Amino acid sequence: MSKLFVDEIVHQSSQGSGTITIGASGESITVPNGSLTGQNYPAFEAFLSVSQSIPNDTVTKCNIDTEVFDTDSCYDNSVNYRFTPNVAGKYFIYGQVYVENLSSDTLQIRIYKNGSILTIGAINTGSLTASNMLNVTTMDTANGSSDYYELYCYQDSGSSTNLNGNASNKRSFFGAYRIGA
Questions:
Q1: Are 167 and 48 in contact (CB under 8 A)?
Q2: Which residues pair with 150 in a beta bridge?
Q3: What is the pLDDT of residue 32?
Q4: Distance set, CA 174 to CA 4, 7, 107, 109, 116 (Å)
Q5: pLDDT tens digit sequence for 22-74
Q6: What is the pLDDT of residue 169?
Q7: Structural domain boundaries of the chain?
Q8: Was domain 42-180 assigned CATH 2.60.120.40?
Q9: Could you give the angle at the alpha carbon of 33 between the alpha carbons of 28 and 38, nearest 5°?
Q10: What H or E segment, with its residue span, contains residue 120?
Q11: Sign of CA dihedral 172, 176, 177, 179
Protein backbone atom coordinates (compact mmCIF):
# COMPACT_ATOMS: atom_id res chain seq x y z
CA MET A 1 0.00 0.00 0.00
CA SER A 2 1.36 3.42 -0.98
CA LYS A 3 0.73 6.70 0.82
CA LEU A 4 0.58 10.08 -0.81
CA PHE A 5 1.34 13.13 1.35
CA VAL A 6 0.41 16.54 -0.06
CA ASP A 7 -0.41 19.97 1.37
CA GLU A 8 -2.80 21.00 -1.37
CA ILE A 9 -4.58 19.48 -4.36
CA VAL A 10 -5.38 21.95 -7.12
CA HIS A 11 -7.53 21.06 -10.10
CA GLN A 12 -6.64 22.93 -13.27
CA SER A 13 -8.70 22.13 -16.31
CA SER A 14 -10.01 24.14 -19.18
CA GLN A 15 -12.31 21.23 -19.95
CA GLY A 16 -14.51 19.00 -17.87
CA SER A 17 -16.62 19.56 -14.79
CA GLY A 18 -13.99 20.75 -12.33
CA THR A 19 -14.67 17.67 -10.18
CA ILE A 20 -11.81 15.92 -8.42
CA THR A 21 -12.43 12.20 -7.84
CA ILE A 22 -10.69 10.48 -4.95
CA GLY A 23 -10.87 6.70 -4.98
CA ALA A 24 -12.48 4.38 -7.47
CA SER A 25 -16.17 3.74 -7.83
CA GLY A 26 -17.46 1.69 -4.90
CA GLU A 27 -14.55 2.56 -2.59
CA SER A 28 -15.05 4.42 0.65
CA ILE A 29 -12.94 7.30 1.88
CA THR A 30 -11.93 7.46 5.54
CA VAL A 31 -11.83 10.89 7.15
CA PRO A 32 -9.52 11.43 10.15
CA ASN A 33 -11.40 11.14 13.46
CA GLY A 34 -14.43 9.85 11.56
CA SER A 35 -16.00 13.23 10.79
CA LEU A 36 -15.64 16.32 8.70
CA THR A 37 -15.25 19.72 10.33
CA GLY A 38 -16.58 23.11 9.37
CA GLN A 39 -20.17 22.18 8.55
CA ASN A 40 -22.84 24.54 9.84
CA TYR A 41 -25.09 21.92 11.31
CA PRO A 42 -27.17 21.03 13.10
CA ALA A 43 -29.20 23.79 11.53
CA PHE A 44 -32.86 24.61 11.01
CA GLU A 45 -35.19 27.28 9.76
CA ALA A 46 -38.93 27.36 10.23
CA PHE A 47 -41.71 29.89 9.67
CA LEU A 48 -45.18 30.63 10.96
CA SER A 49 -47.70 29.36 8.40
CA VAL A 50 -50.88 30.90 9.84
CA SER A 51 -51.40 34.03 11.93
CA GLN A 52 -51.12 33.73 15.71
CA SER A 53 -52.87 36.00 18.21
CA ILE A 54 -50.52 37.91 20.52
CA PRO A 55 -52.35 39.15 23.64
CA ASN A 56 -51.71 42.63 25.00
CA ASP A 57 -48.98 42.96 27.65
CA THR A 58 -48.16 39.22 27.61
CA VAL A 59 -44.92 37.51 26.61
CA THR A 60 -46.08 34.87 24.10
CA LYS A 61 -44.17 31.99 22.55
CA CYS A 62 -44.14 32.16 18.75
CA ASN A 63 -45.58 28.89 17.45
CA ILE A 64 -43.23 28.67 14.46
CA ASP A 65 -44.71 25.56 12.88
CA THR A 66 -43.41 24.92 9.35
CA GLU A 67 -39.87 23.70 8.80
CA VAL A 68 -37.96 24.87 5.75
CA PHE A 69 -35.15 22.49 6.75
CA ASP A 70 -33.96 20.70 9.88
CA THR A 71 -30.66 18.89 9.29
CA ASP A 72 -30.61 16.80 12.47
CA SER A 73 -34.26 16.81 13.64
CA CYS A 74 -33.40 19.24 16.44
CA TYR A 75 -36.37 21.60 16.01
CA ASP A 76 -39.76 20.72 17.51
CA ASN A 77 -42.30 22.39 15.20
CA SER A 78 -45.48 20.97 16.74
CA VAL A 79 -45.43 20.90 20.57
CA ASN A 80 -42.70 23.01 22.21
CA TYR A 81 -41.56 25.05 19.18
CA ARG A 82 -37.95 24.89 20.31
CA PHE A 83 -34.49 24.16 18.97
CA THR A 84 -32.46 21.64 21.00
CA PRO A 85 -29.10 21.23 19.23
CA ASN A 86 -27.60 17.76 19.65
CA VAL A 87 -24.00 18.87 19.03
CA ALA A 88 -22.10 21.05 21.49
CA GLY A 89 -20.76 24.28 20.08
CA LYS A 90 -21.36 27.90 19.25
CA TYR A 91 -24.56 28.76 17.40
CA PHE A 92 -25.90 31.71 15.43
CA ILE A 93 -29.59 32.09 16.31
CA TYR A 94 -32.04 34.42 14.57
CA GLY A 95 -35.70 35.29 14.39
CA GLN A 96 -38.15 37.72 12.88
CA VAL A 97 -41.73 38.67 13.70
CA TYR A 98 -44.20 40.59 11.58
CA VAL A 99 -46.97 42.05 13.72
CA GLU A 100 -50.15 43.30 12.10
CA ASN A 101 -51.91 46.57 12.96
CA LEU A 102 -49.88 47.49 16.01
CA SER A 103 -51.47 50.72 17.21
CA SER A 104 -48.83 52.02 19.61
CA ASP A 105 -46.15 51.42 22.18
CA THR A 106 -43.67 48.55 22.39
CA LEU A 107 -42.97 45.54 20.21
CA GLN A 108 -40.34 43.04 21.34
CA ILE A 109 -38.89 39.83 19.96
CA ARG A 110 -37.00 37.63 22.41
CA ILE A 111 -34.78 34.60 22.14
CA TYR A 112 -34.94 32.43 25.26
CA LYS A 113 -32.38 29.84 26.34
CA ASN A 114 -33.56 27.17 28.76
CA GLY A 115 -36.61 29.24 29.73
CA SER A 116 -34.77 32.54 30.39
CA ILE A 117 -34.22 35.60 28.22
CA LEU A 118 -31.01 35.40 26.20
CA THR A 119 -31.53 38.50 24.03
CA ILE A 120 -34.23 41.06 23.16
CA GLY A 121 -34.89 43.20 20.12
CA ALA A 122 -37.36 46.03 20.62
CA ILE A 123 -38.94 49.08 18.99
CA ASN A 124 -41.29 51.73 20.28
CA THR A 125 -43.82 52.32 17.55
CA GLY A 126 -45.17 55.59 18.98
CA SER A 127 -48.62 56.38 17.64
CA LEU A 128 -48.28 54.51 14.35
CA THR A 129 -51.13 52.35 13.13
CA ALA A 130 -49.25 49.95 10.93
CA SER A 131 -47.66 46.57 10.63
CA ASN A 132 -44.18 46.23 12.05
CA MET A 133 -41.35 43.82 11.35
CA LEU A 134 -38.64 43.20 13.93
CA ASN A 135 -35.52 40.99 13.82
CA VAL A 136 -33.21 39.64 16.47
CA THR A 137 -29.91 37.74 16.24
CA THR A 138 -27.47 36.38 18.77
CA MET A 139 -24.67 33.87 19.20
CA ASP A 140 -24.50 31.44 22.09
CA THR A 141 -22.77 28.27 23.25
CA ALA A 142 -24.96 25.16 23.60
CA ASN A 143 -23.97 22.01 25.50
CA GLY A 144 -25.33 19.64 22.82
CA SER A 145 -27.65 17.76 25.15
CA SER A 146 -30.08 19.79 27.26
CA ASP A 147 -29.82 23.43 26.12
CA TYR A 148 -32.76 24.68 24.08
CA TYR A 149 -33.83 27.92 22.37
CA GLU A 150 -37.28 29.43 21.81
CA LEU A 151 -38.68 32.56 20.15
CA TYR A 152 -41.09 34.86 21.99
CA CYS A 153 -42.96 38.06 21.16
CA TYR A 154 -44.35 40.87 23.34
CA GLN A 155 -46.53 43.87 22.52
CA ASP A 156 -48.37 46.36 24.68
CA SER A 157 -50.68 48.18 22.28
CA GLY A 158 -53.73 47.91 24.52
CA SER A 159 -55.37 44.99 22.72
CA SER A 160 -54.50 41.71 21.05
CA THR A 161 -52.87 41.77 17.65
CA ASN A 162 -51.70 39.13 15.20
CA LEU A 163 -48.29 37.73 14.52
CA ASN A 164 -48.43 37.36 10.76
CA GLY A 165 -48.07 33.86 9.39
CA ASN A 166 -47.95 33.26 5.68
CA ALA A 167 -46.93 30.14 3.82
CA SER A 168 -46.06 31.97 0.60
CA ASN A 169 -43.69 34.57 2.08
CA LYS A 170 -41.96 33.88 5.37
CA ARG A 171 -42.77 36.95 7.46
CA SER A 172 -42.31 35.45 10.92
CA PHE A 173 -39.52 32.90 11.25
CA PHE A 174 -36.93 31.31 13.54
CA GLY A 175 -33.64 29.59 12.75
CA ALA A 176 -30.18 28.63 13.96
CA TYR A 177 -26.99 26.96 12.81
CA ARG A 178 -23.73 25.82 14.36
CA ILE A 179 -20.77 28.10 13.68
CA GLY A 180 -18.03 26.19 15.50
CA ALA A 181 -16.85 24.21 18.48
A1: no
A2: 82, 112
A3: 54
A4: 45, 40, 17, 11, 17
A5: 666 666 666 555 555 557 899 999 999 999 999 999 999 999 999 999 999 99
A6: 80
A7: 42-180
A8: yes
A9: 95
A10: strand 116-124
A11: positive
First vs last C-alpha separation in the chain: 35
Nearest to 172 by CA among 126, 132, 128: 132
Residue-averaged pLDDT of the chain: 85
Answer yes or no: are the C-beta atoms of 136 and 110 closer than 8 Å: yes
Q: What are phi and psi of 36, to 5 degrees?
A: -85, 155
**What residue type is assigned to position 76 of the chain?**
D
- What pLDDT is recorded for position 157? 83
Taking the C-alpha atoms of residue 147 and residue 80, their distance in angstroms, rounded to an integer, is: 13
Residue type, 134: L
* Polymer length of the chain: 181
For residue 101, what pLDDT band results from cuts at 50, 70 and 90? confident
Is the pLDDT assigned to residue 102 strictly greater than 90?
A: no
pLDDT reported for residue 33: 52
> Would the pLDDT of 130 be above 80?
no
Which residues have C-beta within 8 Å of that of residue 111, sequence separation ≥ 6? Answer: 93, 95, 117, 118, 119, 136, 138, 149, 150, 151, 152
130 Cβ contact list (under 8 Å, min separation 6): 101, 102
Residue 60 identity (one-letter amino acid):
T
Coil vs helix vs strand at 32: helix
